[in-house]
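Hey team,

Filing this mostly as a record. A colleague (T.K.) asked me to run one chain through the structure pipeline before their review meeting, and I want the input and output archived in the tracker in case anyone asks later how it was produced. No errors, nothing strange. Just documentation.

Input sequence:
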Amino acid sequence: MDIAPPGFTVKHRPRGSSTRGGGLALIYREDLKVTEVDIGASSDQFEQLTMKLSVRSLSVLVVVIYRRPGAITGSFCDALSDLCESLLAFKHSFILCGDFNCPRENGAGINAAVADILRGTT
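Output structure:
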């Protein structure tokens, strides 16, 4: 909670004790109704935290992802594609954010295969 400014709160999912790092977090305004959601898509390719944020009659899913740096594999692309398909089937507006660690080979932009998957979600 120390990282949240006044008027905000944190949903934190710590990383398992066998690995280094702090896990995933979402910082949001206290006046939002926030609930964790199981969208039925899990993978060993990345960590994920999915929250439904609601204010008045509007709600949106926020999916926070962390992928360790390394080569972009077919397994990762398949898992990301499965996640996107699950989100589209959920019939809610969503925001997919986080640290994908998927740079283009020249470092300018996102990896082309990953960009193709994300374009398919619009």
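Quick notes for T.K.: The two ends are 34 Å apart (CA to CA). The chain has a mean pLDDT of 88.
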